[in-house]
Amino acid sequence: MTVSGQHVVPDDGAHRAAHVDALAGLEQALQQPLPLNLQQALLAARDALAEAMAERRAAQRRYAALFDAVPDPVSILSATGVVLDVNSAGVRAYGRTREEIVGQPIELLNPDLPADHLEPVWETLNRGETYVVEVTNMRGNGNRFPVEVHSAAFEHDGEHCIVAVARDLSRRWQAETRYRLLLESIDKGVMLFDRHLGIISANPAAHRIFNLGSAAPARVPLHGDEWISVDEHGRRLRPEQWPVTRAFAEGKSIPSTIIGLYHRPNGRMIWISITTVPVFSAGCDLPDHVFSLFSDITELKRDHALFDRAQSLAHIGGWEWDRGQQHLYLTGEAQRILGQQLPPIDLEQLLACLNSLSRQQLREAMEHVVEQRTGFELELQGQRASGHSFWIRMIGEVELGDLASTRIAGTLQDITEPKHAEQTLKNQARTDPLTGIMNRDAALTDLEARLSNPSHAGVAVLYIDLDRFKTVNDVLGHNAGDLLLIEATRRIADAIGTEGLLARFGGDEFVVTCDARDLPGRPEQLAEAITRAFIPPFQFGKDEFPVTTSIGIARAPQDGLRPQQLIQNADLAMYECKRRDRNGWQLFSPELARRQRDRLQIERRLRKALDRDEFRLVYQPQVDLRSGQIIACEALIRWRNRQLGELRPDIFISHAENTGDIVRIGEWVLHQACRQIRQWHNEGLGMMRVAINVSYRQFSGDRLARQVREVLDHYGLPGSALELEFTERVLIEDAPATLRTFAELRAMGVVLTIDDFGEGYSALNYLRTLPIHGLKLSQLFISGVPDNPSDVAVCEAVCGIARSLGLGLVAEGIESEAQRQFLLGLGVPVGQGFLFAPGLSPTDFSRQMT
User: Fold this and answer.
1) Is residue 180 part of a domain?
2) Residue-wise pLDDT tens digits, 123-141
3) What is the DSSP string of 353-389?
4) Cβ density class 183-210: b for 16+ within 10 Å, e for less
5) Tens digit of each residue's pLDDT (9 = 90 or more) over 442-474
6) Is residue 16 domain-shared with residue 26, that is, in the same domain?
7) Does 265 lie in the same domain as 120?
């Protein structure tokens, strides 16, 4: 496509040149002597071609006339935005000659276009749609004028082109002046502000409202001594708080706002209600003007202040609920009673400051008013934002004449003081004297009352026990224990707020009852809040004690319909939480009750298992991972009961630890393992080292070290023949006593290892101070290597810790060759697992060694 001094028309350029060449060829051929019939044919062809060229020139003249007849500027653009043609209206509008425009990029006419402005244009045109945009064009003299451009696509000589029609919007401002008469006749003040907050125009009503003549402010009165502006509460307004400033900054309308303007020279106070609306020019994302519409409410404000004063003296506030607009209005006194900083804008904000029972009562009352068109009177309890509780008497009814019941209004009266006085005598008989909260009898009475009412049956109980309370009580004395209970009570009360009822059940146990009808997840939310409240340790002088909570949750009716049953099941869930890992919460379930029955059955039989000779030891080899040679073994306990059958150690060991039977069982294991070491040695197998597991309950005083010394001496064994494995829990139970015990055991030559490292508490601070020899990689992580990235990362981390501290490393639970190769690659020297052998009887182990 070429750009020339002629208008661009369809079939221009190459087609026209071809036609001219063809006509010249015919003329030349007719000059030669030809047969008659051929000469006649050439003449006919020449005439037809000449006629076609004449018709084409006529079409071009019609196109040019039509193109120039369009009153709006029309431009033809190439695919890349080069101007190929422009009509006469465009020449006039842009104030440039056609030669100055054609062949230039479109940025000549619109210098504000971004570099990629054609991308959205072609995206729209390729969908077969018209692209419309408002932009600012520039004349030859540099003046700008707004236009609305409509663009469409067409093809010319096989190339994609754009036809763009620009409509001048300059006259829009002229049309808007027609509304000036309207602005001058209304009784609302109207002002137009520029971006510098200067007042461009103000209608007569604005001057009447200010009543200051030429003293009316020329700018928004943000600074200076002449004008003082305040909000509806009398607080000075900062510049960024003025509605006009906010409209410019936020680019959105600011709804009706009450502003006070005090003119110092005249000593006059004006109160206005002002609404501001931003005005955007075409193509702008920030407003360049702001309209303000305001009314004089000075008299109304004065009446309102007197009414508020009367309400304050009587401690009675007013409220109105507009159901249609979903808007709640509270008078100033009503806001003060409720402790609200700002008036709520919907009913939910009022409900949020009430407790769950009062919230439900008010909801039901509001629905009943609408349905029955009757009034209500309620006594409701809630909590202010300051944390102080309140009681209010709330009266409401449908406004007279409101047939659709869209507006409900009434009064709020503060009855906190008489209510508190009324409750004082009742509370003395129901209160725990140490903490000041409800006692056991009061909690049971309240719970029974709730459960006896079918509509309140959706109650939940949280049974809370303090972890490690006994440690503080024993170490620091009962006075410190009392202080801890008082602080714990405060933390729980702050965590539950008005959502639950707190009682001390005795000792270090608390109960929270809450309503779960309107929010089924409320018990879990309260449990989480209580758990978080106990994250900071308790401070006693310079010492800190971490005390956490174990919480059990039971719900009515599914978990019980009687108070004692519900409390018992919540207690059972709490016990399960404390048994599992403490510092959390557990829901009651029938499965939990079944496990409790099974636990009691196991624990009952476990006490007699030693006397009935039901335990035995098996020995799992520990091998050199590179050579496969057995270098040691681990003694594993097995229990077969006549009624229960074979039980896994992970089931009965935890029960034995809970009941304390693990101490007797541990002594038996120590004797049996050392007896077996001596027997193997006597059989010629050498001094085989045997590892046994030691429970944290065996670390009490110096009993463990003394016992190990006695058993080694009894069987004539060196300390190196024995390896003691213990879990990470030992690290945090009693650090000073543990350090002494470990030092004594190491002095005997006993090998000390942390079992299942990384699976429990991972108390690294203690790890670096304990005189231990090695770590054991847990089967929990070995089972996932080498495919599970998380398990691989844990194994690598544990190996790094062992290397850094100079500790030995043993991997347990190896079941595949791939796991063995992975561990060898990490530098783990020793391992055990089914890949090599399961737990073997002493006889089978002897065969493995020979």
Assistant:
1) no
2) 989 988 889 888 888 888 8
3) TB-HHHHHHHHHHHHHHHHH---EEEEEEEE-TTS-E
4) beeeeebbbbbeeebebeebbebbeebb
5) 889 888 888 887 665 679 999 999 988 877 777
6) yes
7) no
